[in-house]
Design a protein that fits this description.
This protein is an alpha+beta fold and 480 residues long. Helix content is 33%, strand content 19%. This is Glutamine synthetase.
Length: 480
């Protein structure tokens, strides 16, 4: 099957041919929360903008997730600059069609500074492109995969409001991970998620139920980092759009139920050289010799020296970049339970360990060519472009500085884990750590990005701190 993105136009003439018979085109960019912000354009307007771009209101970087204007004067979009236009650059390689919208053509855009013609500091696609360019300096390509877990509800946007977001009905009852029986229920919706995603150029490796009422998990196919990040964002769009059709409300919140496991957004990462060889994999001679002789710990003997340094870079910088991995107030509630729900809340790593923050996937559990790291900290609310950018920047920094893991793998820690460094338990704590003058986030992502993105996260914190919740009313109203 030829995927739509494989037919992407490479020239203006090819674009015109591709759009014959169409009258309009849908475009969208991605904001810092992962929300698709877009519009429908006439075909003529789109074609004329394909070469040089078009103006797009910068307020999409001045709004929070609910379109509330940030009170802080952030760098990109503010009252002082009048929320001026950004330059929207159309990425022709992202071409696909939306099958449930009469096959309307669809393209993603990257937001550029109109003065410098470079991606603005907080554009998620632009940030990941910067990380990819960094890898190219070594002659490598960033490769990744994304797994998303998500609850489904028999609800609509209207019923959510009518019920005040309480007493919601799950799509199916009970805890049924990997259930073939539960997928028979709502099978049209379940299979449509897979089939319509494929039509949209979003390749899926596996699709099944997870433990929890109405929970699905979808693993998106391993591919080039920018494409997988685009695919992960667009998969959420597919799920939410099809949900409207079938009367289902999927939620990618990290922790919608306090008493149940949360929803993960695991990231798989590796590097590939110009010959297609996995940089994290051992050479044939090392495999034949039974592993790498100079590995610091036995858990590391089946990964390359570069992979060990990449891992060391992630471990060293993890505490300083938590808001890019866990960007919401709710996301930290998934981490509170720790290992009991396989949601790691400490700086740990280990061979094939689902209890660790970073799981090493290498021989003998996978073939050498599939060697990779699984970053298990993010929830389903992850912004994949920013999270992957961060992981690759940290890992490449580790390779540049030859950083090795400073602690033992989780298998060697034993019962006493008093020396293990814990991750932030709140967005406020995580953001304060990220915004420190000496933070590794500033070294890798840059001051402009940290100041802008940090400002958006502190806005979330301020909103949360000012909110009066049902929990507070139930606990204090009568008895305090």
């Amino acid at each position: 099957m030829i995927l739509p993105t494989e037919n992407a136009p490479k020239s203006l003439e090819e674009l015109k041919d591709l759009l014959k018979g169409d009258t309009k085109v849908k475009v969208a960019g991605i904001d810092v929360d992962g929300v698709l912000r877009g519009k429908i354009m006439s075909k003529d307007k789109f074609v004329s903008a394909a070469k040089s771009g078009f103006g797009f209101c910068s307020v999409v970087f001045g709004w929070d997730i609910q379109d509330g204007v940030y009170p802080k004067e952030l760098l990109i979009s503010n009252r002082k600059n009048g929320y001026r236009d950004l330059l929207a650059q159309i990425d022709l390689s992202t071409y696909r069609r939306i099958p449930w919208e009469d096959n309307i053509p669809f393209f993603l855009i990257t937001f550029l500074d109109p003065d410098t013609q470079k991606p603005i500091c907080a554009c998620p696609r632009g940030t990941l492109k910067r990380a990819s360019e960094k890898a190219k300096e070594f002659g490598w390509e960033c490769i990744a995969g994304v797994e998303l877990e998500y609850f489904q509800f028999n609800e609509t946007p209207n019923t959510l409001i009518q019920k005040n977001f309480t007493g919601l009905e799950a799509l199916t009852p009970g805890m049924h991970g990997y259930s073939l029986l539960r997928t028979t229920l709502n099978q049209d919706y379940f299979h449509a998620l897979f089939d319509e995603s494929l039509k949209m150029g979003i390749e899926i490796e596996s699709h099944h139920t997870e433990t929890g009422p109405g929970v699905f998990e979808t693993a998106l196919a391993y591919t080039q980092a920018l494409r997988i990040a685009d695919n992960a964002t667009l998969f959420k769009f597919v799920a939410k759009s099809l949900g409207m059709k079938y009367g289902v409300m999927p939620s990618f919140m990290a922790k919608p139920w306090g008493e149940l496991p949360g929803c993960s957004g695991h990231l798989h990462v590796s590097l590939r050289d110009s010959k297609g060889f996995n940089v994290f994999a051992l050479s044939g001679d090392e495999v034949a010799a039974g592993g790498r002789a100079n590995a610091k710990y036995s858990d590391l003997k089946w990964i390359s020296q570069e992979a060990e340094w990449f891992l060391g870079g992630i471990l060293e910088g993890l505490t300083d970049v938590m808001p890019m991995l866990v960007p919401t107030i709710n996301g930290y509630k998934r981490l509170v339970a720790g290992e009991s729900f396989w949601a790691p809340n400490a700086i740990t790593y280990g061979y094939d360990s689902r209890a660790a923050s970073i799981r090493i996937l290498s021989p003998p559990s996978v073939p050498p060519s599939a060697t990779r790291f699984e970053i298990r900290v993010p929830g389903a609310d992850v912004q994949p472009h920013l999270a992957l950018s961060t992981i690759f920047f940290l890992g490449l920094r580790g390779i540049e500085n030859k950083i090795t893991p400073s602690s033992e793998p989780i298998s060697e820690l034993g019962e006493d884990r008093s020396g293990v460094k814990m991750l932030a338990t709140s967005l406020e704590e995580a953001t304060a750590t990220m915004m420190r003058e000496e933070s590794i986030a500033r070294q890798t992502l840059g001051d402009e990005f940290v100041d802008h993105f940090g400002g958006t996260r502190m806005h979330e914190v301020k909103k949360w701190n000012a909110a009066v919740t049902n929990w507070e009313l139930e606990r204090y109203m009568e008895l305090i």
